[in-house]
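Hi V.,

Quick status before I head out on leave. The structure for the redesign project is tokenized and pasted below; the design run finished overnight.
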């Protein structure tokens, strides 16, 4: 009996490891070297992409100079880790009297239970949005992903609201809600968004809704629906109240 249980445990372990390998095959993450026009200083482009999931494109060079090293502490940094802090803090350390937070929904996903994502306004007025996907054509890729493994979380910097809404709509998020937040904690929201990448995934208690709640709570959204009484993304989205 003990031998049978041992063999069963081994089979479950092998199956679980195989599922983790599947989880590494993200549908939403791209490669900076393949998808972005390189900046003159390669560190700037690489680090900007790592922190914000977006290319410092020709358009942004013309408007904001994101490839211009003078944008980042006048070109003064000690190493890549220092540059990463500079690029992160550029859009999170500033204060706003108010900012907008967003929830995005794919209502038809997961057998009609829905799939949800998040977004929020940065200190310079631009936007950051993303989600923990772990879905292929509306079906959960794997029910359990261990913490630290790729759960197909992505986040991307957007230069205006229209660009953000267009991207989310293209990904199948057909509806959204937005709410105004006084004195948002932008840095904490970005920290929490980064945390969701390492949280893994479980169908119950550690899913797209839990991660969305985690990010928006960090931003400072108040009076969100209870997840306990609105456990599905569609139900929670319906109960979410916009405040402008």
């Amino acid at each position: 009996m003990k031998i049978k249980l041992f063999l069963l445990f081994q089979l479950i372990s092998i199956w679980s490891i195989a599922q983790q390998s599947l989880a590494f095959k993200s549908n939403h993450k791209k490669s900076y070297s393949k998808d972005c026009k390189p900046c003159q200083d390669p560190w700037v482009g690489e680090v900007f992409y790592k922190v914000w999931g977006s290319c410092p494109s020709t358009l942004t060079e013309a408007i904001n100079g994101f490839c211009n090293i003078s944008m980042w502490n006048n070109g003064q940094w000690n190493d890549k880790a220092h540059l990463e802090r500079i690029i992160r803090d550029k859009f999170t350390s500033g204060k706003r009297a108010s900012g907008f937070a967003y929830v995005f929904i794919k209502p038809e996903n997961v057998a009609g239970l829905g799939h949800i994502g998040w977004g929020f306004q940065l200190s310079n007025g631009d936007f950051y949005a993303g989600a923990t996907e772990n879905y292929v054509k509306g079906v959960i890729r794997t029910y359990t992903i261990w913490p630290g493994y790729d759960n197909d979380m992505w986040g991307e910097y957007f230069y205006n609201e229209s660009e953000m809404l267009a991207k989310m709509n293209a990904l199948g998020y057909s509806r959204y809600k937005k709410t105004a937040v006084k004195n948002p904690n932008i840095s904490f929201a970005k920290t929490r968004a980064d945390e969701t990448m390492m949280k893994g995934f479980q169908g119950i208690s550690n899913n797209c809704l839990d991660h969305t709640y985690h990010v928006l709570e960090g931003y400072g959204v108040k009076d969100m629906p209870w997840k306990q009484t609105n456990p599905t993304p569609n139900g929670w989205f319906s109960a979410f109240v916009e405040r402008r």
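Above is the designed sequence. Residues 4-27 have pLDDT under 50 and may be disordered.

G. will cover questions while I'm gone.

Best,
W.
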